[in-house]
Amino acid sequence: MRITVFTIRRLRTIAALAKVSGAIALLLALCANLVAQSASAGTVHVDATPGRSINSFDPDSALGSSIDVLSHDDIDKVYTPHILQESLSAGWGPITYRNNSELRMAAWHWNPNGTWSDPVHQSGYFTGSTELKEPIRYILSYSLPHRGFSTSGDRPLQGPNLTYWKSNPYLTSRFTGESDALHPQWVVVDLGAEKSVNAIRIAWANPYAVSYQVQYWMGKRALDFDEGPDGEWKNFPAGSIKNAQGGTVNLKLADAPVQTQYVRVLMSESSNTCDLHGSDDVRNCVGYAIQAIRVGTVDSEGAFAEVQKNLGDASTAFCTSSIDPWHSATDVDATGGYQHSGFDLFFSSGITNNLPPMIPVTMLYGTPEDAAAEIAYVEKRGYRIGYVELGEEPDGKHAMPEDYAALYIQWAVAIHKVDPNLKLGGPIFEGVNKDIRVWPDAQGQTSWMGRFVEYLKAHGSLTNLAFVSFEHYPLDPCTITWKTLYTEPDLIENILKVWRDDGVPKQTPLMVTESHLASQLTGPMTTIFAALWLADSVGSFFEAGGAAYYHSPIQPQGIQKTCLGWSSWSNFVSDERYTIRGYTSTYFAAHMINREWVLHHAGMHHMFSSSSDVKDEEGNVLVTSYAVYRPDGNWSMMLVNRDQNNAHDVRIKFEDASKKRTSNFSGPLTVVSFGSEQYVWIDDGPYSHADPDHAPVAASLTANSQTVFNLPKASITVVRGQVSGLPDK
Question: What is the pTM of this model?
């Protein structure tokens, strides 16, 4: 038997080198167990029947990582040869560029050079320049004055010039080509708790609503699209307003107050009067604008009183259907703490791994002209584009599916005029585990994805949806236990099924474009738990028919305190100067996936169904398995032992149903393992680190029909080699 040690290039101290002998001892024990005979061994069954592959993928387009918002200084530190080399060493192929500006309800100037629709006042709607000037190193964000009182979305970028709320002009008939009544705009006032309401005061700006309804919510969770709203909107008895004249109005909505937490103003017809920016641009004169809304009661004398808050009540919040992307040069966030990588830096630095990346265009708070200009610029530079995502997390911003779809069509038309071959997609959902449910439409349909797909289909634009993307953050960050690990395959397989059941065509690829354990940092992200979770997540995603999986993020990050200990998002632990102090379990899991299980730069891999009979007394599957047939002619099994305390022996059987025979690995094999014997996270506050922090261990052996593979406790093992008696895939 020839024994090798899988090594990872890193700078080690003498103290770290001293640990190698321990790793070799572990390796010798592993190899001894690999050839043990065990009557109690479990069995992994692989359906290797030719023609029965359940999925196929090329790792160079299907297994990647991501980069997100950084500070000005962090951009300078990340895009250095050493950090880039280390970041790429995790083995991921392509990269996806995340648009955090749109997440924060901000305009995104992908190019600092460009033109304003009102050049005199340096304001209006900005279109980036397609001229090739100085390379773009940093991208700035701009707050939106017409966000007004709206707090929809994730921590809106603050700005100095907040004025009134105004809806997105691209959702009006001038741009959609259909009645405004088909894209009603709305403001929901969330009072934070149930209150007595029978009156509303609205200070309209221009353009104002000529026809609108004031409604209250009967039920709970009116704004919870993840769990699904529980209730329905009801019109106040005097809540239907026609032929309105704008200005500030006090409306008595009912004689007797109703108890509700949510009040909605639903607008369906605009005055089309121009806002304070004038009539030179039609976008200033369509949609709806409101200066302020107050909800309360009126007494018998007609005096209005705003609802009173009790101690402990949440503050009043205002959620809106859309936001006008109008802004000015003075709305720039130039503090340096919140920026994105410039496209020239991004494409030329090497972080794309010489593979065409996925890039975003801003849509919810941008213009189709600017999106088209971005694509024209990137292609004029000669940079390759793999995919383009349109918008960012519309579900988190409570955008209606028909509104997102109407924008999507306009943006797709503009982009495809520049390059008709580009693959466009979205909607880039937040990480959810079940269908996104919204208020029912006229047909009673509540599925966000279902209605989005139906809108594209009805408008002859479904072919513009080249892929469907979503984020995968499946776990509650503060309630993770070891048994939570057992849920991942079902969670990711179920969400893929949900999108298909919603009507996403079978031929439309499904992609996870951001992923980690949870949407908030949590302690298990740096324990061995995260490594096993990632292997299961990737394996079960492709097993369920997924097309591309991006794990986040690629660059190093420091550690922070969380509800379950100190942790890092990243593959690395680094200090504030981006000096890498150690590797996390997800780094080594990435190596197991990208360097051992699959073969990059080789072509299509074919996945086959597999299962194991290793379970605990509660029926939980303790050993999961993922089988691929690689372009080099080898079968590769990724085996995840999710048992925290015990090793398990398994035999691997390849079954050909067409010829009713069973085969097995035969001849030279490579076996690589990484788990809790190589890696333990020490939770020690700001000094937290892994000890041991060893790389995976590898062995070469000769297998036969009696070979039993020992899977160490809490580990990932890849077994790779030839299978006797099986034809190619």
Answer: 0.94
